[in-house]
């Protein structure tokens, strides 16, 4: 599997990323995709439970910044409602938007994760920017525009392949650690040849 398309962590929803879990993962800042990650594509605002989650993270001191390919007026409106910083027109999968957010907010890249629902946008952009990447299940992806839906079948095939590789790795006796933050290493068992006998 290509590293720049492989998330460091997969969760069903951002709601699984509570402050204690983020602390355990060595993360203190999140760059957040918007559409299909925090809200449905066709709604303007996030649901109440996501708004409460954002408030909990902010109270816990977790750095937050929206990083979206959406236009400034739409993303800025949402950011303003929830007191968030934002980088619109991020051009993901290019890494520039992620890098700009990290630089503008003064985040430590080694302790920052890009969180989103698309391998070919969020994960790739986060990886290319040298960040931890977290893939979430998309919220109502059937509402997305055609050019995003076109990518979903290949994305599903890659995720199914990741599942197979993870199952295979889990059944392998020897593991080597992925070269990422130590607190995340145990999440990514990667099979390797057995060590030679001394
Ligand atoms: Mg999205």
Q: What are the segments in which pLDDT stays under 50 over at least 5 consecutive residues?
A: 173-182, 188-198
DSSP strand tally: 8
Percentage of residues in helical conformation: 25-40%
What is the third-level CATH name, the topology?
Rossmann fold
Order of helices and strands: EHEHEHEHEHEHHEHE
User: What would you give as the CATH superfamily?
Assistant: HAD superfamily/HAD-like
Q: State the major sheet.
A: 6 strands, parallel
Q: What's the number of helices?
A: 8
Q: Report the bound ligands by name, code or SMILES.
A: magnesium ion
**What oligomeric assembly is this protein in?**
single chain
**Roughly what is the average pLDDT, rounded to an integer?**
86
In terms of DSSP E residues, the strand content is 15-25%
Radius of gyration: 17 Å
Distance between the termini: 31 Å
**Overall tally of structural domains:** 1
Strands side by side in the biggest sheet: 1-6-5-2-3-4
Second-tier CATH architecture:
3-Layer(aba) Sandwich
Q: Which class do the helix and strand fractions yield? A: alpha/beta
Name the overall outline: globular
- Per CATH, the class reads Alpha Beta
Detailed description of the structure:
With 198 residues, the chain is an alpha/beta fold. The chain has a single domain (3-143), classed as HAD superfamily/HAD-like (Rossmann fold, 3-Layer(aba) Sandwich). Helices cover 38% and strands 16% of the residues. The chain has eight helices and eight strands. A six-stranded parallel β-sheet has the order 1-6-5-2-3-4, sandwiched between helices. It has a two-stranded antiparallel ribbon with strand order 7-8. Helix 5 (119-128) links the parallel strand 5 and strand 6. Residues 173-182 and 188-198 have low confidence and may be disordered. The structure holds magnesium ion. Magnesium ion binds at residues 33, 35-37, 116-118. Residues 33, 35-37, 116-118 line the site of magnesium ion.
